[in-house]
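Encode chain A's predicted structure.
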Amino acid sequence: MPASSASDPTDALLAAQRAYYDLRAPDYMNPRAPTDRRSRGQLSSDVVRRTIANFAPRGDVLELACGSGAFTQVLTDHATSLTCVDGSPQMLTLNREVVGDPDITYIEADLFSWSPPRRFDHVFFGFWLSHVPPSRFDDFWDLVDRCLSPSGRACFVDEDERGIVNEANHRPGDVPTAQRKLRDGRSFTIVKVFWDPAELETRLAGIGWTATVRPLGETCLAGSAYRYDDAASRYAL
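Encoded structure for chain A:
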């Protein structure tokens, strides 16, 4: 991805976001840990498994922003090979512990500056797109394109505009943000963009993607997108 200006205030916001999730990692996958939001807004494991099964991410699969491993565990049931990337070393450690699959390739990298070493059949990212600033949206999808084989497909899950009910301190604007707190009281500002499924489809179409984005559960969405125009290879959600 193109390097941003040294004076770009979004860089500081993204650095705080990376720091927060690295520090927060020990509390993930722990139902007894206090939530850092008004409501957790999580998907049940059954919904996650059904959604990933509908995506059918076969072959060489790349998971971006793999986080705590909630989706990684399910992706291993479908992928021939799985590569997981995250900017947080603590999240990668947690993912390894939770998933326990020695065949997974893990990469620690900032997704706003990383270049893929090769191409993959499927790229998946869960609860990541909402953390991409609008100004970096096109660049992020350029990365996804560079990660995919010519007939590859991107799949994703995130919160949609209904998910704002889970936030106590959400601020709209050129870069929508939300507040997160650690157990010790430290507060961090992170990027939090709540997409409307139809608007997201339109935005992706404007940069050359064919996308299907549908509501999922009470506050989420599930999407599938590809660059090629092969009607026989289109996947329904």
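The two ends are 29 Å apart (CA to CA).
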